[in-house]
């Protein structure tokens, strides 16, 4: 709505300190992100050209308000009047955004190492969990992904990574539409991703 866009524009101006663009360092002033274990991945996602719906690959140095709106659109909640086709497209857009957060080398696959990195980051705040345990969790999840996406693999087969099609299969039946959204509480906090 126009009211939401105005609200986002105030947020953008606050983050950019009244400049025309936002740079990665502007995200340092967001208290809610400070303690998020995947803070770097979230900030990175704002500058990922794939998420900005640009034809090129890589990272943008800065984003303008239109880019900011594009990124924030991935987090909007579902609308009650959406038909099945719109819901499916909406769901795929959200999942593509998440996929890009994992696929850090931009090759179209989430490799075991990329998945390990994310799991280790997520679990880094737990002082009782050793790095080796985090790796075991990631390895187990990757084996489960392979079984869902490829089925029974032979002993000499290697699962090279999760493609976006695999990612869609893995998230089938999980209600991402209502869980991945942004809720604005006040001017000091930017976003909560559920």
Could you explain the architecture of this structure?
The chain is mainly alpha-helical and 194 residues long. The protein has a single domain (2-178), classed as EF-hand (Recoverin, domain 1, Orthogonal Bundle), CATH 1.10.238.10. Helix content is 51%, strand content 3%. It contains 9 helices and 2 strands. It has helices at residues 2-16, 31-34, 39-47, 65-73, 84-102, 112-123, 131-149, 164-170, 176-179, and strands at residues 21-23, 62-64. The chain has a two-stranded antiparallel ribbon with strand order 1-2. Helix 6 packs across helix 7. The longest helix has 19 residues, at 84-102. The two termini are 22 Å apart.
Quick rundown:
The protein has 194 residues and is mainly alpha-helical.
- Annotated CATH homologous superfamily: EF-hand
Nearest-integer average pLDDT? 83
| Share of helix, binned | 40-55%
Sheet of most strands: 2 strands, antiparallel
The proportion of strand residues reads under 5%
Low-confidence stretches: 183-194
Could you give the distance between the termini? 22 Å
Write the layout of secondary structure elements.
Blueprint: H1 2-16, E1 21-23, H2 31-34, H3 39-47, E2 62-64, H4 65-73, H5 84-102, H6 112-123, H7 131-149, H8 164-170, H9 176-179
Antiparallel strand pairs: 1-2
What are the defining features of this structure?
cell membrane, disordered C terminus, two-stranded antiparallel ribbon, metal-binding, Recoverin, domain 1, cell projection, 194 residues
